[in-house]
Amino acid sequence: MQNDVLRKGLVLGILLLFVTASIVSALNENPSSNSKSTVSNGLKQQSGSIIAWGYNYNGQCNVPEPNTNFNEIAAGNTYCLGLKIDGSIIVWGSRNQVPEPNSGFIAVAGGSGHCLALKEDGSIVAWGDNDFGQCDVPSPNSGFTAIAAGNEHSLGLKADGSVVAWGWNT
């Protein structure tokens, strides 16, 4: 029994080292003092492409083609969102709906089963599961500068520094 536990620990340790080495290697391929990479079920490379890994039951690791010109990524429970340089959003995995018009977005966030997107005008678009009101953006839906999505709740940072929360346990 003790040997099985040690073997499993060793395998997990080797796997962690491999994943860490892969991330470091990917980051070192295109080093830049101005580059920004995001890790959350995927890695956005300086080239604008995405490398995704993990449990792929719903296709959340199958980045759609063309895998170029991504500016930001976010991961939900069983799906991923990619914000393109042109301000449009690509969603893949268990979710594939995108708000219309699909333009003018500057940030994305993924909750358990809901998505948030911040528009250039400071408003938030929310879609997906709404069992706890996590997609019901409170009024006034304006003046937001950042977004975050939790399991069944959502957050928005206002330009004045205040935080607005909605959904479960708010």
Keyword list:
about 170 residues, alpha+beta, Methylamine Dehydrogenase, Chain H, 2 domains, three-stranded antiparallel beta sheet, globular
Summarize the structure.
The chain is of the alpha+beta class.
Describe this structure in words.
- The protein has 170 residues and is an alpha+beta fold.
- It has two domains: 1-31; 34-167, Methylamine Dehydrogenase, Chain H (7 Propeller), CATH 2.130.10.30.
- The protein is 16% helix and 34% strand.
- It is built from one helix and eleven strands, in the order αβββββββββββ.
- It has one helix spanning 2-29; strands at residues 42-44, 50-52, 70-75, 79-84, 89-93, 105-110, 114-119, 124-128, 144-149, 153-158, 163-167.
- The strands form four sheets. A three-stranded antiparallel beta sheet has the order 3-4-5, with no helix packed on it.
- β1 and β2 (50-52) form a beta hairpin.
- The protein is globular.
- The termini are far apart.
